[in-house]
Request: fold
Amino acid sequence: MLRLHNLIMENFGPFKNEQTIVFPKENGVVIVYGENMRGKTSLLNAIRYAFFGKILSRGANQISLHQIGNWESAKEGTYGFKVVLSFEYDTHKYELTRTCYPRKNVDIPKEDQDYLQECFLRRDGMVFGPDQRDAELAHIMPEQVSRFFLFDGELLQEYEELLRDESEMGRKITEAIERILGVPILTNARIDIREQHQGAQKRESKAAQKNQKTQELGNHLGDLMEQRVYHETETKRLKKDIGDLKDKKTSLESKLRKTERIRTLFDERNKLDKEIIDIDTRFIEKKEKLKEIMSGIWRSMLKNKIQAVRENLQKQIYEMQTNATRKAISIEMLKNINQAISENQCPICLQKLEEKTKKDLAAKLIDMHSSNYEKDDSDKLSRMQQIMIALKDFETPDKTELLNEINDNIEEFVVEKASKQDRIMEINDQTKDFNHNESEIRMQYNEHEKTIKEITIVEQGIRAQEGKLKEINDNIQGLEKKLDLEGGANLGNERCRRELYGKLYDLFNESVSIYRERLRARVEKDATNLFLKLTNEPDYIGLKINENYGLTIFHKDGTNIPVRSAGAEHMIALSLMGALQKNAPLQGPIIMDSPFGRLDEAHTTKVVRSLPSMADQVMLLVFESELRPQTARNELLGKLRAEYKMVRLSARQTTLEKCKVVN
Amino acid sequence: MNNDKKTIGLTPSNREVMNQIMQKNLFKDQIDAAKFAMSLAINSGIGDGPAEGADTTWNIGSFDPNGELRTLIPLLFPNIDTPYRLIEYLINAGLKIIGTQLANNKDIVFQDIVRKGLQPN
Reply:
């Protein structure tokens, strides 16, 4: 059981000079209140730095050491920082000191390389050597399980990944859970026994090679075992490769997540650039079309004028044609009258003319001769008709509609292009600090795709190797059976040893499965108990655990709740934490940074009430609107062992003040 | 028609207007723009007159290669026997109209002038 005594921070983050937090000896909760930017995450990091020499940002990425030293101290010429953590483990008292200071020849450090780090671990006053120190620390607080002791409330949603089988983050969390629950004790023992079993198999094959009767079988077995060693080595190598590749993929995904918004903006900008080129092309096409129309537009503009001239001409031509008809009729009439007078008979009805009629006709003849029928307009008419034909040549299809349409298109293009250019300017503004990183971001994206492909290939390789290994093991088993029949008494001892290790391996193999099952059942039960204390929803009757220790809410109607809120996610994660603490061989303090950000007041109250049952020592780093001090005091009563307040002295300096706990 | 012009020209001020028009990138060449200006002037009811100060810009052979304007103008203006002289006058008058509109509003959408020119009068 790990138990913290006190933490001294010197020039660490906003904590200038030396500042101390004392963890009370009694079991219970310590609460440190601090508003945003006062140093809550720095305090959590101070403990993390003491144990692991690492400082993480809220996104779980490592922060540069150079950025951690107190800025005001640095301004005054003091660089670097120091953390001293005193704790107790298995009745021994430890003091862990980690210091970061500038190298001798560096007056003003500018980057991490300008610093040196030192770490000392004392146990009951005795200082460990570096290797011993690292081994001891790895035993007391393995880094792989630190997430269950030192955690950031904002990262609690990561536990949802346990519900996704293919998730790399989920796989890592499952490994960490099994580690804290002690599963590696059994799995490592299983590996040891397997090695012993293989060693016994080898010895048996060698013994068989020495006997003439079994020599051939022994040689064959020896070959197969050599092949097995080769394929196992290969499988191990590939599994290491895939582990590295998956780590690389996770790291790239984390980077890609951070730059996702920027990458999306870069993609959008490239798309807009292409669209603008397309608009420009269409714009030029329309402009050419427009010029073509504009080339003959003067005709269209004169259409009405020409139309008016044509109508006027048409009218004149009609009048002239009418006159010509009249003239033709008159000439015919003249001809008939002349004939009637000369022949004294009507040429049409052949009746004889009376004298009076003849006189009337002669008078009419004089009238007709005196009118203008004789005037010849045929030349003028012909000229006019030619003009009509000439004007017809100026008739042009009305291109007004087409022109309007093209103009509208061009205007639309202009507006569309301007809108896209505006958006590009916005994007440029939003990405101005990242532009030099565009190629790097794209490279990361390509690298991610490449890594996924490599993972697929290596996975295929592992499957092939495992298939080969199964085949070899089956062959070995077959040969061993033959050897059992033919080997006789001289192989008896080796056979017994081999069979014993084989059975032991089977036993441990089964034990691992049974232990895992039992652990899962226990974690499910304890997480359910805690969850039911935390939730306000009476219809939820428990949590169900999956193979990866992922927890699903179980409704009283017998169904699972497939989608859950961020608040529910936090409660489930906290329930899992509590259950793991209860079932882990390794127990220690829980230090939570802003764990209530997603919870309403009622749930916060319930979580606070349950804290003392989650671990003997709990330290909360919260801001007052996240957890009101009076609520904490009312809910925790005597279990609230200490309260600290982070007080601002300046933007770069915070001091820790211990408050008097009044329940 | 013996007294008619053999060349057509623009006045210095209209040459500047022509440059402005060409910057709008609407016409393939200045001849198209000049014919547009001529039509605009005809539609605006401009009659006959002298284009004073016009220099030589185009030979009528290149301006009216098919002689269609020589045919059309006397039809529209029956009393005219020097069509190219009138055409020069009308072009300059049309450019003056456009120049005035451009001077009043530099950002005027030229298409509006075109649309106006196409409206029935």
